[in-house]
């Protein structure tokens, strides 16, 4: 039984196949009559809607379930919820606060589990990010340089693992006190990445093909908001940062964006921005991933 809790649950060949299926315009609906649970402990615009449409396009039925309704470890154990949902659904997708919740569901080995964002990882976003890069630079993104400016969070981890697996060069600019752990760096290195860490946005983006950022305060971190915003105040992706990257660099953001914090409005809404194709690609890659998973 296969799960997708992080991008490196796929081999490089499998990642490539998922991306090929995501880009295909003639994908056969291969989940006719199946059910997909979509459990959310946190809000979502892109993930819920892209998954619901991808499930529909594959011929399956998606059911949205609020996390509070099933109540992981509140109403009953996480394991009992996994066993129960496995009786109705062919795949269980979940957005959770704690990554461990996904690991415990997967450990029941009752139904494939797909991570729709946890505190550790956002692999479905990583897939869409890579498809966006491929649409921009061609299928082979090896040797392309992706500079991430901001919080090395769930989105950064999955992007770095995916891009590292495909041979892209990785740069990160983050302030002292918010640099990635040795374990994070080891995971990215094991996947094939070779991240270069800096505390200077201008240095990190120099010559980059893509500049990426995400919010400074992720869902679940609201208690640290004031301190994090202060720590990251010099890490906004502005027009000056994009100019330091070079004339052909594109801008990416998983969204939701906080204009005036991690990105200037003129960048998010400017000609270098690819945020809308990137958001649309969430649906195409959800379809590609579920199509592949249903054949495992
Ligand atoms: N990028 C992303 O996951 O967006 P949502 O939180 O709106 O799903
Ligand atoms: N890092 C953000 C991503 C939102 C899609 C969060 O976890 O809230």
Please tell me about this protein's structure.
This protein is α/β, with parallel strands linked by helices. The chain folds into 2 domains: 7-122 and 282-293, Rossmann fold (3-Layer(aba) Sandwich); 125-278, Rossmann fold, CATH 3.40.50. β1 (35-40), α2 and β2 (61-66) form a beta-alpha-beta unit. α6 (123-137) crosses α13 (275-293). Helix content is 42%, strand content 14%. The radius of gyration is 18 Å and the shape is globular. Residues 44-47, 117, 125, 254-256 line the site of phosphoric acid mono(formamide)ester.
CATH class of the largest domain: Alpha Beta
N/C terminus separation: 7 Å
Q: What is the tally of helical segments? A: 13
CATH architecture of the largest domain: 3-Layer(aba) Sandwich
| The CATH superfamily title of the largest domain | Aspartate/ornithine carbamoyltransferase
Major sheet description:
5 strands, parallel
Q: Residue share in helices?
A: 40-55%
Beta content:
5-15%
What's the CATH topology name of the largest domain?
Rossmann fold
Strand neighbour order, sheet with most strands: 7-6-5-8-9
Q: What integer value in Å does the Rg equal?
A: 18 Å
Query: What small molecules does this complex bind?
Result: phosphoric acid mono(formamide)ester, norvaline
Number of structural domains: 2
Q: Decide which structural class fits the backbone.
A: alpha/beta
């Amino acid at each position: 039984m296969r799960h997708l809790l992080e991008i490196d649950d796929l081999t490089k060949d499998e990642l490539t196949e998922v991306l090929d299926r995501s880009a295909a315009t003639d994908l056969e609906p291969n989940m006719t009559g199946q059910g997909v649970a979509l459990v959310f402990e946190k809000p979502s615009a892109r993930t819920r809607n892209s998954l619901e449409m991808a499930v529909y396009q594959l011929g399956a039925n998606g059911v949205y379930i609020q996390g509070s309704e099933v109540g992981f470890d509140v109403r009953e154990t996480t394991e009992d919820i996994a066993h129960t949902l496995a009786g109705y659904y062919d795949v269980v997708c979940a957005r959770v606060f704690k990554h461990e919740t996904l690991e415990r569901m997967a450990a029941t080995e009752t139904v494939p589990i797909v991570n729709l964002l946890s505190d550790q990882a956002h692999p479905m976003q990583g897939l869409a990010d890579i498809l966006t890069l491929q649409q921009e630079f061609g299928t082979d993104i090896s040797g392309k340089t992706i500079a991430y400016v901001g919080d090395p969070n769930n989105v950064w981890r999955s992007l770095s693992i995916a891009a590292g697996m495909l041979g892209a060069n990785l740069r990160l600019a983050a302030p002292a006190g918010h640099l990635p752990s040795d374990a994070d760096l080891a995971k990215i290195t094991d996947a094939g990445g070779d991240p270069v860490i800096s505390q200077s946005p201008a240095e990190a983006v120099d010559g980059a093909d893509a500049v990426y950022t995400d919010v400074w305060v992720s869902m679940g971190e609201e208690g640290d908001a004031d301190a994090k915003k202060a720590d990251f105040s010099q890490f906004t992706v502005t027009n000056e940062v994009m100019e330091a990257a070079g004339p052909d660099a594109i801008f990416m953001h998983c969204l939701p964006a906080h204009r005036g914090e991690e990105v200037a409005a003129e960048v998010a809404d400017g000609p270098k921005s690819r945020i809308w194709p990137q958001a649309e690609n969430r649906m195409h890659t959800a379809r590609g991933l579920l199509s592949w998973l249903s054949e495992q």
